């Protein structure tokens, strides 16, 4: 998207870009919109589907920020305020996923533990053992591990 | 330790009375900070979206299949086009081209109107056929995100109309005038666009098409 | 001192409602904020005294159980949203920030007054929840509005959450204004590393204000929509998730406690070197630890959810991250103590408050560690231990620093001195009353007394009684303190421009400052804390 240095003017108030940059950016944005609709029709896993859609959207948003919003002329100061919300949002989403994905894991552990206990109980009843016999079984199981 | 002298570099001022460059620098940083808050504002909704989709993938797939991709894609293109005209409006202001500035602001406003009309075409049949906020989690998220986005579009339209009339007085393009107002209005409008860029695939393209 | 100039007129001069309410002067806006927040401090404080009065004895004496819930909810909601969040930044911050960096005003004076009006609007909406019968319409959810109760409660959830939503805008506007001011309006020579530490702490707090507030705004908006339209995002019955509300709420509300405490730390860092007659120790460490606290504050919210059914992974990650807050906080405490070391310390009232802050805040920080530890938190969560812990940060930290800062800058703000003896009596009353209130709460919390209960078992009676007596002394202290300050405004001795011999920029202009802050543009050639050099000269 090389901009015309002839037209690239370091004015007091912002930089003037060659108009071709705007039209080029717009063309790319339209092409990416069509691409994301097209790609969405493919059969993939839901995760892959989201990653591709978000990837394309991120490229589009970057184009808007860099060229339409003149992000490429902005100082580090401004980019700090561009990155900060993105990082915080990633933190929020990441932490929520660790929580929700992890919660299922916790449930899984509980379920299997309960199931095992239940099976052990059933076994000991079928074997006709006394109540104290449970302990012996549990110990045996432990030593097997 | 402090010696009181007049500042050589003009860092001491009331910016309303100081050169336009100063106001420009203030407004732009202020607007970028405001945009950061906007991203996080919508970010909360994105968090709700992802968590609820994680819990109810089939509800989201079914809800997304109910939406009209063609209308959504058309609206995306319309909004992108209005973003282009807004970028060109800022460019015209930088070049002190009053006629083109007014023209481009008008075009941007028309683009925003088009977005509203298409949005209405999308919402109306849904609202009348009982797909309301609260009918399931997907439609709650759908109406909250697109509704809040719509409010931002309306605010943007108000400001674009304001700039349109102001631009005709030469307020942004006269000698020594500051076009900071157009620049920050443009930044805001592009952010509305950026948010839509994310909303479109998340809501419309979830599968079943 | 260029004080006795012929055309010098203090900013307080043109009086009258119109001149004040439509002003764009940062000093006046700061004062209007101060009057407003102190009004709500009074109401919320009286609610707290009501709570403690009910808890003198077990059983029901003054209010019924719903009334008790209303009292602690009002206390919490008013204190958090209307008093302590704007507490230091919008009052002392507004007044001092431009003075300290040598500017005429903040970057956006009109947004500044807009922020105050938005604050007033939000406050009125919150108070609107009090229209209607107390029994059925006064909010009783606690200030955290946890779902699902806040969805089901018949009380005025909508006005209070809507009010908090509006107040968020005031907070964002102030934060944005401060950030742009600090970036763009520093006087010539006022480099980042010459800025007073109060400005650094305001900068860090403003970053949090700007970056955390929008998330609670959308959360509260979703809660309002939940009640209006039944959208179900936070309702388990409709497929939503109540824990999501807690996550999003605390994503703001944990960083917000650093909005409260960071400017307080800044106030202390301003007071200490003046009364120790010594340069601040570890300037850069204190400055950057403010930023570090602001950064870390965003990654620790999960510790409020340890017993809410969060996953085990999240629990230990958040526990670990919470401990990380202790590092920059401890850096600050050590540097403050380093500032006092071998200084020629004089204990005038602002210094008493600063030292009181260090003492109380250290207790607050150290009692946070057992709450960050997973195993002990399961026992201590939602007990009076937590209540005592956060009151040590909020009241022992922020309020003590605010009051100390008011004493320190009162001569600058009004050009009058308060009575030093009364100020010292006020401090010690506050110190004794405060500790008498909350040390028993640590003990009974550890013994298992849950928070937010209108009634308690007989075995907790001694501790509750002691705590309630302490609370009454604590309340009395504020009447002494503010009585003295208000007296000073009308009857106090005229103060000189720089009664404490501070080197900071705001003291180099007359007291009270003129409307334009400085007669001439100040040029800064050195950092603010060169207290050793002045003794040599």
Model description:
Chain C: One of its GO terms (cellular component) is membrane. Chain C: One of its GO terms (molecular function) is cytochrome-c oxidase activity. Chain C: Residues 20-525 form the Cytochrome oxidase subunit I profile domain. Chain A contains 4 helices and 2 strands. With 145 residues, chain A is mostly helical. Chain B has helices at residues 20-55, 57-66, 69-94, 98-128, 137-168, 180-204, and one strand at 2-4. Chain B starts with a strand and ends in a 5-residue tail after the last helix. Chain B is built from 6 helices and 1 strand; from the N terminus they run E-H-H-H-H-H-H. Chain B has a single domain (38-204), classed as Up-down Bundle (Four Helix Bundle (Hemerythrin (Met), subunit A)), CATH 1.20.120.80. Chain C is mostly helical and 537 residues long. Chain C has a two-stranded antiparallel ribbon with strand order 1-2. In chain C, helix 2 packs antiparallel against helix 3 (65-87), helix 4 (89-101) packs parallel to helix 8 (157-184) and helix 8 (157-184) runs antiparallel to helix 9. At the A-B interface, helix 1, helix 2 and helix 3 of A face helix 1, helix 3 and helix 6 of B.
Q: How many domains of chain B, as an integer?
A: 1
Beta-sheet strand percentage of chain A?
Answer: under 5%
Strand order of the largest sheet of chain A: 1-2
Give me the Rg of chain B, rounded: 21 Å
CATH homologous superfamily label of chain B: Cytochrome c oxidase, subunit III, four-helix bundle
Secondary-structure element string of chain A: EEHHHH
In short:
The complex is a heterotrimer of chains A (145), B (209) and C (537). Chain A is mainly α and 145 residues long. Chain A has four helices and two strands, in the order E-E-H-H-H-H.
SSE topology sketch:
The complex is a heterotrimer of chains A (145), B (209) and C (537).
Chain A: E1 9-10, E2 15-16, H1 19-40, H2 46-68, H3 76-126, H4 133-144
Antiparallel strand pairs in A: 1-2
Helix pairs in contact in A: 1-2
Chain B: E1 2-4, H1 20-55, H2 57-66, H3 69-94, H4 98-128, H5 137-168, H6 180-204
Chain C: H1 17-21, H2 26-54, H3 65-87, H4 89-101, H5 109-128, H6 134-137, H7 149-152, H8 157-184, H9 197-229, H10 242-276, H11 283-296, H12 312-340, H13 349-372, H14 374-380, H15 384-414, E1 416-417, H16 420-446, H17 461-491, E2 493-494, E3 522-524, H18 531-536
Antiparallel strand pairs in C: 1-2
Protein name (chain C): Cbb3-type cytochrome c oxidase subunit I
InterPro entries (chain C): Cyt_c_oxase-like_su1_dom, Cyt_c_oxase-like_su1_sf, Cyt_C_Oxase_1, Cyt_c_Oxase_su1_BS
Pfam families (chain C): COX1
